[in-house]
Please model this.
Amino acid sequence: MPRIDHALIVGAGIAGCSAAIALAQQGVRVTMVEKQRAWKFLSSGLFIYSNGLRALHAIGVLPPILEAGFAVPGGRNRYFDQDGSFIVETVYPSLEGLPAILGIKRAELHRILASRIDELGIALKLGTTVIRMPPAGGGAPPRVALSDGSEDAFDLVIGADGIRSQVRAEAFAHIAPAYSGFGVWRSVHDRPRGLDAKIMMMGVGKRLGIMPISEEKLYMFGVMLEPQDCWYAPADWPALMRERFGQFGGPAAPFLHQLGPGSEVLYTGVEEVIAPLPWHAGRVVLIGDAVHASTPFMGQGGAMALEDAVVLAEVLAEPHPLEEALRKFAARRHPMCKLVQDVSRQVGQAGALEEAEDCARRNLELRRDGQGKVDAFFAALERLR
Ligand SMILES: Cc1cc2nc3c(=O)[nH]c(=O)nc-3n(C[C@H](O)[C@H](O)[C@H](O)COP(=O)(O)OP(=O)(O)OC[C@H]3O[C@@H](n4cnc5c(N)ncnc54)[C@H](O)[C@@H]3O)c2cc1C
Model:
């Protein structure tokens, strides 16, 4: 029997949608509010590694994800320097027979999650948010007022509202996002047939990656230090990306040359959320980026949000009081999310080295032990499950 009868989920991103599906499938009544008036998800791509695919399998949506995305044959990741000289090829591990890494358009992932939400009859209120949060105590289910004028009693409020979480700001005012120093530039291109591996190009002060996201498309992402709070007009993003990463040759060159007016480009200044335990206050719990947004250099933020949903549903189905279940949830998730944040930060720093000699040493180290580092990271994730 589920521990709760009626849950309110605030935010219909990866964390909110997957939690809604996981809970509804075990009999919890779910109401989900999303402040956007229509499903509108920023484009470009997402990698999902085996651990994230396992979570998608657990919530029952894996087949359409595999159909919509692009599973990299053999999980290959090919490293080059910025001139296009080959450094090394590493291989991501495949868990439980799942693809090691899949690229997918974000909009496709959300289309699939939204369709499952619809099939399950989950009450989704678009263009709606929370007006009055429940009091901090864990007493009787409080009444929560929503911006559409309705009010209801909820056994649990799940804050899945991302980096700028309103739920976190109200229930955990001491936690705030911090700028990482990095900006990420992303563009979408037609995929040449032969380009079927993930590519990472290690430059001086910058990194550039290429990843297939469907049979037809790939996305390219460039990472470099950017000043905090800088603002670039979206119409200038294609030219800025082309200019910033202009020193990259090899496999990136044709895609950089394509960038021009009308290209699909996104710029994001990267923030992190580092939240100590507890992750709940009374009947309010945080999941996903709202509580552990990471720099994106391990491509694990989405997988962490998906795993949060699966673990939260698991602990809520166990016969414990709610308070204990929420403690157990965070105790299971915190070490893994912290590991992802710590390793991702290190990878960001290694990619931002600005002295040519340091970069040459880093690339040599990648050749010597790149595979060992990949294996150690994924083994640690599995140990912390
Ligand atoms: C540049 C970049 C690249 C990345 N690449 C990858 C990758 O390749 N693979 C990967 O796994 N992860 C990647 N990530 C991380 C991943 O995008 C996030 O970890 C993931 O989207 C988090 O999902 P979420 O649902 O927690 O938050 P979000 O996706 O931010 O969703 C939050 C939702 O809540 C809604 N909301 C906000 N406030 C309110 C409110 N007050 N009321 C109602 N609704 C509200 C928002 O509109 C949104 O829909 C990347 C991140 C960045 C920045």
About this structure: The mean pLDDT is 95.
